[in-house]
Amino acid sequence: MHSPIPRKWWHDKIAYQIYPKSFLDTNGDGIGDLQGIIRKLDYLKDLGIDILWICPIYRSPFVDQGYDISDYYDIDPTFGTMEEFDLLLAEAKKRDMYILMDLVINHCSDRHPWFQKAAADPEGEYGNYFYFRRGKNGGPPSNARSYFGGSAWEKVPGQEDLYYFHAYAKAQPDLNWENPKVLQELYTMVNWWLEKGLAGFRIDAIINIQKDTAFPDYPADAPDGTASVVKMIESVDGVGQKLQQLKKHTFDKYDAFTVGEVFNMRQEELAEFVGPEGHFSTIFDFSPNCLSDGPGGWYRNREIPFSELRSTIFRTQQECQGIGFLANILENHDEPRGNSRYLPPYARNEMGMKMLATVNLLLRGIPFLFQGQEIGMTNCPMESVEEYDDINTKAEYALALEAGYSRQEALEICCRFSRDNGRTPMQWDDSDNAGFTAGTPWLKVNPNFLQINAKEQQQRDDSLLQYYKKLIRLRKSPEFREILAWGNFEPLWEDKDMLLAYRRVLDGRDVLVMANFGREAVTVRDSLLENRRVLLSNEETVLHGSCVTLAPSQALVVG
Ligand code: NOJ
Ligand code: CA
């Protein structure tokens, strides 16, 4: 049966996330740049990528790596110039590729002129661009705790008892979405970029725009009496109206593609978010990532049991079909590397990575690869906490120490969960600094670049990189494109403990995907397997009638 969802231009596309600081440095300052992205467009095209999401490149003091914007209309000189950005747009267009920017509009930087003017004159026009509140009982206005730890309130510079709200770092004051002037500023800015030729945006932290403007206290969930801002976000209604207005005034006019970073959505609101009239084209499916979250800091995180990974993927796939499309990821710049997280230790090798890629890329939804995923970059071992750059990692390290862990243990916790795991420089080849820079890299290069790098994998036929190309080619092949983009998702053989198998079905045709996450071979007997042909596998495979045996870490796709 055909999906009732009207088809959109982006439904059958493959996206790739670029973390520009770490992609490719072309001027030797140790930081990736726009010219570096331009230089690698052919590499990305050859991989099969259609859409590029570029993490923030706006002017910024980089307290939170560009998620603190001080000028929405400018490119940070670290990355290059607006002319170079325009060149990137033109070069992408030549190759039929689309560019998404990051849209960070829950907050800006405390260096943004809006905030500077607000602080200089809190009673003036700009004071109302932010959430300024008087303190309570000699302390902050509420007990809200920011995502990066500590109070979500900071004193307005130069003011005695006046605070501003920041859900993230104190250098990231939240914008007042109740103020129509702020909304107008933001709509104008979004349209300005779309007018330039952007295909759309990845939309940062967007669920946070809806506040309880009375900023009440919530029951404490930390020893210091604070309560996570999540408590407030989960208790308020009305974000949908704001998002519909945003869409109507901007994205809708350009048929733009938008992918929301949405946490803490209520499941029953899925259609409002990604349905045909939804706030966004799609949202990331973070449900597998969230499986490792513990009830507090990273030190309370856990390993993900395979059974939960499988049931979670199956659940979100089934919940979404008939409603809309999710964006499927294994990792991003805020997460550890996917292969270090989802593969059991015995499968953390190239074969296992091919298996994980197969499972992920053939799901129903828009695949978003993160730079380096296609060559199997792994978490990076750091020798000391000083080697980290990420503001969040430092906060989590401190939390682990406070909770009684030793320095070594706290470091190990960061090695597993740090956001810098995904941010180390791209490993292009086996020359100095992995070919990322001729200078000193801003963040340590993973020492495994001698073994894991793009050049080696370009030259080797059975590499992970070549396998990704085959997977993407299969997804786009005239024969299977429709099934793999629009076909329904159906779980298979859940009685097999370590097998993750499903089929994609459209108009009576299907593709079967199976992956053996276990240490032992798995045999499946089912008439569904009869008269099949192998479309792709990471291992030699023979099909015998209705029976197939998968080796450990084997992935098999049949049509
Ligand atoms: C989510 C971004 O992906 C993350 O890197 C950032 O720190 C926060 N939002 C705040 O903008
Ligand atoms: Ca540079």
Rounded Rg: 24 Å
- Give the count of helical stretches: 18
**Average pLDDT value?**
97
The counted number of beta strands is: 22
Strand ordering within the main sheet: 1-2-5-10-12-13-14-15
- CATH C-level class of the domain at 15-104 and 262-380 and 452-467: Alpha Beta
Label the CATH architecture of the domain at 15-104 and 262-380 and 452-467. Alpha-Beta Barrel
**What are the bound molecules?**
1-deoxynojirimycin, calcium ion
Query: What is the CATH H-level superfamily of the domain at 15-104 and 262-380 and 452-467?
Result: Glycosidases
Low-confidence stretches: none
Examine the coordinates and then state which fold CATH places here, giving the name of the CATH topology of the domain at 15-104 and 262-380 and 452-467.
Answer: TIM Barrel
- Termini separation (Å)? 18 Å
Beta-strand proportion: 15-25%
Portion in helices: 25-40%
